[in-house]
Amino acid sequence: MQIRAGYDIAFQCFQETPMVLMLSIEPAREKELLSEHQIQFSPDIPSRNYIDMFGNTCTRIVAPAGLIEMRNDFLISDSGLPDDVAPDARQLAVDELPDDVLIYLLGSRYCDTEKLSNLAWSLFGSVTPGWQRVQAIVDYAHDRICFGYQHARCDRTASEGHEERIGVCRDFAHLAVTLCRCVNIPARYCTGYLGDIGVPVDPAPMDFSAWLEVYLDGRWFTFDARHNHPRIGRIVMARGRDAADVAISTNFGVVQLVRFSVITDEVTRAPASVSKAA
């Protein structure tokens, strides 16, 4: 299957402002692109990419004072298969984990494990380690938090989300990630595109989504505490310890978001506005 994805984002900058953007798809998916994938800036300004410590593509710019517009519109091939389900996947002992996975057991800015550790062990310590334990955690986060865009708050931690019981997809992901780490299951935060493919169309405006990946049986598996069932057509943009590591924009100065729209749709024919890659 083919997916059309992209965005149209604009900021008002009150002065010349350096910015770091995470608006590219993960490098592993680039070979599946069917069209050009490049951030278009208006006005046209220089940019350069680098790969961060988590393997994400980051774009550096210096935005001029005034309006800066960022757009992308691309086609990508997708298997059309839902997220993998592996009920027999086992939880590895900490001493079995690869060195580069250990960081995903530690607390981080929004994943305050020290505040939820006792709760996690009391709720999930007796659950069969592995897939069943992770699913129990995801079920709990899914039921604990009430979704609503009006509940968005950029500084809510996992423990605060647990107490307030409201939030958006990042809050579901932060809570599930934190509870997994508390019981020695490596978990990382993911952000990217997730369209309404194979499910009823959500009437709310499209947005980037957040979910988590959990390390079981020597590989990473996708879980989604907000939707809590396998989905089709995820396109990862970035992964990290929590939302602080994968912000779509980090601004070194005062800016105001003035426009934000995202598209993620299955297509049956290539849109005329998307040019085929050479």
Q: Can you offer a commentary on this structure?
A:
By secondary structure, the chain is α+β, with helices and mostly antiparallel strands. It has 4 helices and 14 strands. The protein has helices at 113-124, 131-144, 158-164, 169-182; strands at 2-13, 17-21, 40-42, 48-51, 57-63, 66-77, 146-147, 166-167, 187-193, 209-216, 219-223, 235-240, 249-251, 255-267. The strands form 4 sheets. A 4-stranded antiparallel sheet has the order 3-6-1-14, with no helix packed on it. A 4-stranded antiparallel sheet has the order 4-5-2-13, with no helix packed on it. Helix 3 (158-164) links the parallel strand 7 and strand 8. It starts with a strand and ends in an 11-residue tail after the last strand. The model has no long low-confidence stretch (mean pLDDT 95). Keywords: Hydrolase, Protease. Residues 161-227 form the Transglutaminase-like domain. This is Transglutaminase-like enzyme, putative cysteine protease.
